[in-house]
Amino acid sequence: MNPDTPLQLLGGITAREFLRDYWQKKPLLIRQAIPDFESPIDADELAGLALEEEVESRLIIENGERPWELRRGPFAEDEFSKLPERDWTLLVQAVDQFVPEVSELLENFRFLPSWRIDDVMISYAAPGGSVGPHFDNYDVFLLQGHGKRNWKIGQMCNTESPLLAHADLRILAEFEATDEWVLEPGDMLYLPPRLAHCGVAVDDCMTYSVGFRAPSAAEVLTHFTDFLSQFLSDEERYTDADAVPTADPHQIQRDALDRLKGLLAEHMSDERLLLTWFGQFMTEPRYPELVVGPEEVEEEDFMNELEQGAILIRNPSARLAWSEVDDDLLLFASGQSRYLPGKLRELLKMICAADALHADNLGEWLKDEDGRGLLCELVKQGSLGFADE
Ligand SMILES: [Mn+2]
After folding, report:
1. How far apart are CA 386 and CA 376, in angstroms?
2. Which of 61, 83, 101, 327 is the least crowded, having the fewest Cβ atoms under 10 Å away?
3. Domain parsing of the chain, residue ranges
4. CA 134 – ligand 1 centroid, Å
5. How crowded is the C-beta side of 324, counted as CA atoms within 13 Å?
6. CA distance 70 to 171
7. Model confidence over 42-96: pLDDT tens digits?
8. Interval between CA 224 and ligand 1 midpoint (Å)
9. Start and end of every JmjC domain (predicted)?
10. Each residue's pLDDT tens digit, 355-374
């Protein structure tokens, strides 16, 4: 993708300009980001997903049993018919993992790293429906899918921003609107992290939220050090073979701190381990239980299937990324990593990018032992699978 091509999705600016001026910095309203957009799923289908055990969903009812009542799915069918006329919202997480047409929408966002994308949440709101003024710690693109929604944006927030007393929802106690727009189908609003916003349904409406993942500094440190510690032996300890007599034996001296910093720096700067951890962490599936490998797959059977025209597709819950370090390639698949020889570079790119793999586009790769082995492993692991006819 050429970063200097003006994109309709970004209102005619280029990916380079968007990243420079807006990404993580300031909001951008784009009228008709996807012209004449028609939601690939309707309200009934969304409600249907919220009945499913494996789907994460919530209902927020502004004037329910208590103010801003939160109910968690899965829901029973008759629960929807008992809802009030207005002022409620149904939120369904990760619809892209369950509806291929919603997943295809993400193709529009290839100007951003795919491993930064978390999921597509879809909300359906009755007139007046809202989840209250709030802020998120992540970037989000809000694409209007159906009906109209009024969006107000406000101040930049942080952990000190006062919230309403509520057990589960983080609703801002203070909201100072600075801008306001009504979004119609195909319109999109980009919001950087921590910007206060409040969307209220004008009529029955559906909004797509393309959300991103970014680990907190605390997560990076705790998870990376946990990962690192698997490779460290108990013998490796704080050492002070270079110690000299101290004036006061009760004082922790500067030299002790320097030795500790040296110990930390030595391990923290291991780029191979850092990359391995990061790739695994960022490709961890949101719902690991949906990436379960099938029974043992024999390479011979696997090859036969492909030769008979079977099509390999990515498990919609799997996450893939690749990287390189020195002359090695690394493939990250759903929280796992593997080193691969440099000759597989083009295959790796294809596995990450292609929506379908088959004998035709795989071509020569099926004659390569390492290539075949890799594909077969990914099927065993559950990241790739044969499409049902
Ligand atoms: Mn939000």
Report:
1. 11
2. 327
3. 6-212, 218-240+249-269, 288-386
4. 6
5. 11
6. 12
7. 999 999 999 999 999 999 999 999 999 999 999 999 999 999 999 999 999 999 9
8. 28
9. 101-229
10. 899 999 999 999 999 999 99
